[in-house]
Automatic annotation (TrEMBL):
XdhC- CoxI domain ranges (all copies): 15-82
Protein name per Swiss-Prot or TrEMBL: XdhC family protein
Residue ranges constituting the XdhC Rossmann domain according to the UniProt record: 168-309
Coiled coil: none
InterPro entries for the chain: MoCofactor_Util/Proc, XdhC_CoxI, XdhC_Rossmann_dom
Superkingdom as given in the UniProt entry: Bacteria
Length: 321
């Protein structure tokens, strides 16, 4: 499973290689309730073939209809959906939502192909960049990212922050890990699972083949970027502890391990004594993992885990919930 926006870039690259012109769309802002956040992508061809999502269906139909009628030919333009009561009824946008979408029309040039390759590398975690689009010419450039809003419109210039796709790294396979994978896919995450145990060889989690290596080895190879969540959910310290020892040395934004408070206290002591982790590194690990929802079943525990991952990713404190 790839993050949906990675699929968009991959498809755009294929179409450019096949000499197709494409329309590249980015959600710039939402007002009210909207299914897709700023930065979400969609790519389409003139014949209506498309990959990605702007709203979950309703706005896509309107966009593709405009494309079929020969509209949206400008190199770059901003299109607003849901501004009027008639729009909202027709498009079925929830709660009076309004979408502002950047639509770029690109022909299959070497420059555009190179631009897409850099976007692909960025979403795969190699770097963070600022994508700047000139609404007058349609020209796009990639600059160093120094933080700020996800998208920003300044006169005839649009700035879009591009970063790694949210990645969930499952350190070991368990019923809870399998449920986490299901929730993560629904959230649009890239999911990677590692487990060296022989009985897990050839196992599939939500269509993802389990990597037959120790999670710690996989993590040490450079698998974690700043949009990676590492979750250890096996109750096997030979897998969990080693993964945690490596994960705290990476920029992963979330690191967690399953277990009771008593088990977590013992693990913290073990990681300090055996793994040599200091207090600051221990504090990075969410132990016990997840929100306290009173979860009992694997699915309930997985829900609490993914809710906590999303909470941290969105910058929310527990007190703010």
């Amino acid at each position: 499973m790839q993050h949906l926006d990675l699929q968009v870039i991959d498809q755009a690259l294929q179409w450019v290689a096949d000499e197709h012109e494409v329309w590249f769309c980015t959600v710039l802002s939402t007002y009210g309730s909207a299914p897709r956040a700023p930065g979400a992508l969609l790519v389409a061809r003139a014949d209506g073939a498309h990959v990605g999502s702007l709203s979950g269906g309703c706005v896509e139909e309107e966009f593709l209809a405009s494309l079929a009628q020969g509209e949206l030919q400008a190199p770059a333009q901003i299109v607003r959906y849901g501004e009027t009561d008639d729009d909202r009824r027709r498009l079925r946008l929830p709660c009076g939502g309004i979408l502002q979408v950047l639509v770029e029309h690109h022909r299959p040039t070497p420059t555009w192909h190179s631009h897409l390759l850099t976007l692909q590398a960025t979403l795969q975690g190699q770097q963070r960049l600022l994508r700047r689009v000139d609404l007058t010419t349609g020209g796009a450039e990639l600059l160093p990212d120094h933080g700020g809003e996800q998208t920003c419109l300044k006169g005839e210039q649009v700035d879009i922050r591009i970063g790694p796709a949210l990645r969930l790294l499952l350190a070991g396979v368990s019923p809870v890990a399998q449920a986490c994978a299901s929730f993560a896919r629904a959230l649009g995450c890239e999911v990677i699972a590692c487990d060296p145990r022989e009985e897990m060889q050839g196992t599939l989690i939500e269509g993802i083949e389990v990597q037959p290596v120790l999670p710690s080895v996989f993590i040490a190879s450079g698998a974690c970027h700043e949009a990676t969540a590492v979750v250890a959910l096996t109750h096997d310290p030979r897998i969990d502890d080693l993964a945690l020892m490596e994960a705290v040395r990476t920029p992963a934004f979330y690191i967690g391990a399953m277990g009771s408070r008593q088990t977590s206290a013992k693990r913290a002591e073990r990681l300090q004594r055996v793994g040599g982790l200091d207090e600051k590194q221990i504090e990075r690990i969410h132990m016990p993992i997840g929100l306290d929802l009173g979860s009992k079943t694997p699915a309930e525990i997985a829900l609490s885990v993914m809710a906590d991952v999303l909470r941290v990713y969105r910058g929310k404190t527990r007190e703010a919930l």
